[in-house]
Amino acid sequence: MRIHVVDHPLVAHKLTTLRDKRTDSPTFRRLADELVTLLAYEATRDVRTEQVDIETPVTATTGVRLSHPRPMVVPILRAGLGMLDGMVRLLPTAEVGFMGMVRNEETYEAHTYATRMPDDLSGRQVYVVDPMLATGGTLVAAIQELIKRGADDVTAICLLAAPEGVAVMEKALAGTPVTVVTAAVDERLNEDRYIVPGLGDAGDRMYGTAG
Q1: 78 in a known ligand binding site
Q2: Residue 115 annotated as lining a ligand binding site
Q3: Cβ contacts of residue 137 below 8 Å, gap of 6+?
Q4: Exposure string (b/e) for 93-119, b if CB count within 10 Å is 16 or more?
Q5: pTM of the model
Q6: Is 127 within 8 Å of 86 (Cβ atoms)?
Q7: Pathway membership of this protein (predicted)?
Q8: Is 134 a known ligand-binding residue?
Q9: Which pLDDT tens digit goes with each residue over 106-145?
Q10: Catalytic amino acids?
Q11: Which of 99, 105, 145, 158 is at a distance of 20 to 30 A from 203, taking alpha carbons?
Q12: Separation of alpha carbons 79 and 162, rounded Å
């Protein structure tokens, strides 16, 4: 597994405002959207392309376009929805799948309650979006499901990561073609499994605390 921390002043600037507890939900959603687009730019450096012949107003030339099968973006519900627009803005021809996952607050294990994507992902590059890589359980379960369906190149895009979650993913997904792209790897998890210093519960900060 490869982890890429995007070191850019605009990324750091937007992340700082996201961390601030005074940032309201509308501002949080807007900044998360902007930050995802910056992360997606780095995450798609190796997106598969093919050559194509075109005519410009001046002459014939050769360019590139995204290869088929088209890449797929998979937000993990619910907080991952706040990252979807930023991804499809950069990859407008990508297909979108969905995974609904919830964490048991006692065992911290992730359980899948809904999926909407093809049964066969053979040959697909898949971009999983989830704001927080905390314990790693949710992303491991999601990526294992994608690989079971045939995905052969998976990139997870997260606003923040904890070293404990990174270690869990490296162990559970050893030998699989997985990349994690994030704005920062923070200090640690606290006793409630929240990232420190973190930014709190990303879903609640995006959408409020409605159950």
Answers
A1: yes
A2: no
A3: 103, 108, 109, 110, 168
A4: ebbebbbebebeeeeeebeeeeeebee
A5: 0.89
A6: no
A7: Pyrimidine metabolism; UMP biosynthesis via salvage pathway; UMP from uracil: step 1/1
A8: yes
A9: 665 667 777 888 899 988 899 999 999 999 988 999 999 9
A10: 103, 107, 201, 204
A11: 145
A12: 17
